[in-house]
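Summary for the steering committee. The consortium agreed at its last meeting that each partner would contribute one worked example illustrating the joint modelling workflow. Our contribution is presented below. We chose a case with several input lines so that the handling of multiple components could be demonstrated. No manual editing was applied between input and output; the record is shown as generated.
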Amino acid sequence: MKEKKALLIFLGLSYLYGAYAFYALIVGLTAQASSFFKGALPFWPGYLHYLSATLLPFALYRLSFAENEKKRVSAYKYWGFAVVLLSFAAIAGIGIETSLGALSWTTHGLSSLYPVGTFLMSFVFLFLGFLGYTYGDRLSKHPSDFPYVEEPKDKLRWLKRLAFVLFALIALYDLGSLMRLPNSFDPSSPHLGWLFPFYFYMLQPSVFLAYLVYGYRLSSPEKKERSSRIAFLVFLGVGVLLFVLRVIALLVDPLYLAEGGTPLLVVDFSSRISFMPIFLFLMNVLVPGAFLLSKSMHKARLHTSA
Amino acid sequence: MSFYKEKKQLISLLLLSVFLSGCTNKAPAMAEPTDYLSSLAFHEDFKVLQFTDLHWNIETNVEKEKAYLNKVVETAGKVDCLFITGDNNLWSNKEVTTALFRHIQSYDIPYAVLWGNHDRGNEYSFSWLESLVKEGKSLYKNPLDQVEGDSNYAVNVMDGSTIKWRLYALDSHSDVQTSAIRYQYPPLSERQKSWFSSLAEETKVGGTYTPSLVYCHIPLEEVQAAVDNKDGKRTYEKWEHLESISPSYKPSGFFTLAKEKGVKGIFWGHDHANDYTADYDGVTLGYGVKTGRELYYIHSSKRNMDMTGASLVTLKGNGTFALSHLYVADTSDYETHVENYK
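What follows is the complete predicted structure of the assembly.
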């Protein structure tokens, strides 16, 4: 139980850093792709580190809700190995590039601390990955108790997993984008009134994920049935309200995102396709709606069978 | 009980009013015409250098690009005014953007900045950016008004007390959502046109408007008409268009107004692979040459050179102007070609 608690705490922390990293990774790669990767070389170690930081919360989630001993061991070993590999490549990349003069210790760019910050954080991640791998190795020889979670074996299992990963990635990106908001926040912006509901709209997927992980999945079956329907209804209600506010904003102040929200939606505005508002509608309205519907149907089935 | 009810209602009303007060557009104050103007002294062959689409970003090699800009300015010779016509940064942070504008300011040339569609997508607030571009010999103005956009202003080029030329900066906006999934460039607005019109009226002497040039970021739709020349209004054309022209999603009607108000040339940027210029219906319409290689640029196989550099306008006392394109390769050898429009 202690191990699960530690994993869940660490999952929360790694989610925050993962959000920062995933956003930077997407923006950096979008910038690189737009310029046909012509100046990419000095920044690849940074991207590798950001990738390992994005993988970490997924690894910790898999570990926190491991289904059995075998999967737990392999998760520790595989994820640990992947993080070690990426971190080592980042460290080596920075070392080689700085020694060859392709990168300077004061390059900045990706962040004001790049590459020094990435170099140091990669050592931390290397250590974490190594720790995970060796712990997994030890577990394979000396199994220990763990509150395993049994997953229902339905046909749509892989599809649900894929949807969860996509949901989590977009939620990470949105949170990462919001984490940068202090840099671009403009208190004198004439669009501020409409931007505030949009900030909450972008935050909602992460709050929903937090509820799923720390509330829904950890609660007892009875509590799950009782309180989850209320929670999903609240998420749906907030999602609908924020969606309606966005529609009103578009009608009243059509430039509110173009002039005030571009730093939040860099990929959208670079590609000139409004991806994020659509994703946010799906994530904030349709997903809680689907959960609520499935819970209601489940309750109706129980009633009928009783 | 009713006291609590009233208190609750009062709090609700207060919260609603605070929320709604933030949902308004700019405060309805109107700036005076002089708030949009600054002046420079005219002399024969007054030179205006246009930088466009610099796109300095988090991955820009700042020192290399500074050296490149130095080479472009050196190629232009003595410059009297620098127009930086948008998309100055993209995915940039305070450090890189400060480096860019400090460098521009170090030239000690009066400079006018206007905004492109990417200038708001950076890791700093717009008010911080504005305060940066107001430093040094800046001509930038953005008084509190109801005119859409933030870089609508003008520069009078004065010969004593006479306005010899006027240079307009127009904010051609970022994107606006036109459908559930699409962003498009909005046209110059009606308020911008009426603002331009009233400002131009002040230059009218004896029924004639002072000759003027307009700089903006997004091309006007008339450039496509000039390329197609179906109406036969094109009298001259030069240079290339190697990517599709991307004007606003619907016509603004600005061209007709500008022509009527004495505008001799309208210059923009935005499409990096175009440097096409044409005389259309009596007005020169032209792309500035993309400055530097950041984001994307193109190599003209026809002319065997990179289409990077700057555009140079030379204003004459007789109300005409000359245009040249300065092609400076953003490479270590800075291979340079200067081509005159006519």
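Residues 1-5, 20-28 of chain B have pLDDT under 50 and may be disordered. The domain at 30-340 of chain B is CATH 3.60.21.10 (Purple Acid Phosphatase; chain A, domain 2).
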